[in-house]
Specification:
The protein is an alpha/beta fold. The protein has a single domain (about 5-335), classed as Alpha-Beta Barrel (TIM Barrel). The protein has helices at about 15-25, 40-55, 65-75, 95-100, 130-145, 155-165, 190-195, 220-230, 250-255, 290-300, 305-320, 330-335; strands at about 5-10, 30-35, 60, 80-85, 105-110, 145-150, 170, 200-205, 235-240. Strands 1, 2, 3, 4, 5 and 6 form a 6-stranded parallel sheet that branches. α1 links the parallel β1 (about 5-10) and β2 (about 30-35). The longest helix has 19 residues, at about 305-320. It is globular and about 45 Å long.
Amino acid sequence: MTYLIDGLQYANWSERIFRQMREGGVDAVHVTIVYHENFRETVANIERWNRWFERWPDLIFQGFTADDIATARATGRTAIFFGAQNPSCIEDDIGLVEVLHRLGLRFMQLTYNNQSLLATGCYEAQDTGLTRMGREVVAEMNRVGMVIDMSHSAEGSTLAAVEHSARPIAITHANPADWHPARRNKSQAVIAALAETGGMLGFSLYPHHLKDGSACQLTEFCTMIAGTAERHGTACLGIGTDLCQDQPDSVVEWMRTGRWTKTVDYGEGSKDAAGFPPMPGWFGDNRDFSNIVAGLRAVGFDKDEVAAIMGGNWARFFAAAFGPAQAARPAAERAAE
């Protein structure tokens, strides 16, 4: 079965977007429900999604297991998998990992740009790796079946998460840093660590992560994917568009600033371009995934490789990641044998 899965979106959700998902044949999407929200606010966001599931049951439903991807395809709907871009939702209580997993949270980033209680973000000057609580939370996430996402984390913390985790981790939305040197993009060492341990990299279409930004050409993007596949194989590669469709510019301030500063953090933008940059002309919304398919074929990927990158690899990863842990040991222990 060939699936179309997006590893990350944070849209201003509406019936129009849900219908675009269906027009584009999107089987599953990992959606952000947390940036800086605490536990109670996260529950309120889940409640909001519950109302959308009730209002448009013919278009979307909540995904809990990888089997829901097949259900989505069979019923002509899109499975929505919840994720958090910050561990603020568990506050300082490891017990909330299991509670949120039961409510459907399937991904959680250990950091969002800054130092957290768990690890170091990519904007910090010093990278201290996983904290004591971070190591405990990684083990708990492994146990319940919640994916460790290091998309906004610093390099040392990311490599420590790969080594400490008993299950493969993900970087759901980023690109190679040697292609475009955004702070959020990842080194070849990190991508290699993912590939060697069964993890996943979702290629991002957010313009700040693209070479030439909004002017990035489809051929350039797909050639970058081909180069990554040559180095690391195709099994670890997927798409994580980071699509923030229809969001007002004020949401960017919430993403970057949250509650940690009284000033505005412009992140990878500038004061002159603080809002959302325009998406590349070849990808404006969920109806445009076919352009990526055509672009991948044009740079030399065969049909099966394209199917894997566009969703097959994510489907396999979901199947291994979302259930309770089997007997497993951290990558560092396995490598020592």
